[in-house]
Amino acid sequence: MSKHYDAPRLQQQRTHIASVAARLMADGAIADFDRAKRKAAISLGLPENVEMPDNAEIEAEIGVYQRLFQGDEHSKEIDELRRKAVDLMVILQPYHPYLTGSVLEGSAGRYSEIDLQLFVDSSKEVEIFLLNQRIEYSHSVPRSERAEAVLTLSMDDTDCNLIIYPIREERVVFKTRSGKIRPRARLDAVRKLLLSPLGELDKCGDGA
C-alpha cells in the first residue's frame, strides 16, 4: 500500500489522537502534551510508532472542546489562574516576570500549571530570594536548552514553574516546536486581560 494511499488514514489517526489528548488536557487529567498523546494513542488502540499530532493541533482541539463543553466555567477557571499568576508576578517583579503558556493563551484546564519566565544574572538570585521569603520550591527539568533552571512552587494548590533564563535572553523571540511565536505577557498586560470582557490575549497585546 502506497504512502499516498495511506495519507488520509494517517491524518485521521492524528486527528483522533489530537481530539482525545485535548479532552484529557482540558479536563485536567494530564498537563503534559507528550504524555497526553501517548495516553490518547493507547486508548485508541494504536501502535507505539503511530504518527503523533504536533502540540499546535492539540491546542486547537483544546480550544474547540472548551468552547463546546466548558463555556463559562472554563472562563472562571482561567481568570482564577491568571489572578494567581498576577499575585506571584508582583512578588517576583525584580526578576522581569512574564506569563506564558496555556494560562496566558486561555487553553489551560483546571489543574494546569502556571508558567512564568524570569530573566536574571543567575538563577541563584531567585533561589536565595525564595528562601528569604520562606517560599518552598523544588527543581524541575528545563524544557528548553536556553533555560538555566526551572523552580517549581505551589500557590494555593496550583503548581507554578519559574523558568529562569539569562538576562540577555529577555529580548529573544521564543518559538514553539512548530515555529510559531510563543506569546508572553508582562504584569500590566496580564492585569489588562483580567479586565477585558472576553479575556482574550489578542485584545490586550502580549506585553512582550
Structure in a nutshell:
The chain has helices spanning 3-26, 33-43, 55-69, 71-91, 102-105, 123-132, 187-195, 201-204; strands spanning 98-100, 114-120, 138-140, 149-155, 158-166, 184-185. It is of the alpha+beta class and 208 residues long. The chain folds into two domains: 3-69; 71-204, 2-Layer Sandwich (Beta Polymerase, domain 2).
What does this structure look like?
- The chain contains 8 helices and 6 strands; from the N terminus they run ααααβαβαββββαα.
- It has 208 residues and is of the alpha+beta class.
- It folds into 2 domains: 3-69; 71-204, Beta Polymerase, domain 2.
- Strands 3-4-5-2-1-6 form a 6-stranded mixed β-sheet.
- The longest helix is centred in the first third of the chain and has 24 residues, at 3-26.
- The protein is globular and about 55 Å long.
Keywords, separated by commas or semicolons:
8 helices; single chain; Beta Polymerase, domain 2; 2 domains; globular; alpha+beta; 208 residues; six-stranded mixed beta sheet
Question: What is this structure's SSE topology?
Answer:
Elements: H1 3-26, H2 33-43, H3 55-69, H4 71-91, E1 98-100, H5 102-105, E2 114-120, H6 123-132, E3 138-140, E4 149-155, E5 158-166, E6 184-185, H7 187-195, H8 201-204
Parallel strand pairs: 2-5
Antiparallel strand pairs: 1-2, 1-6, 3-4, 4-5
Helix pairs in contact: 1-2, 1-3, 4-7
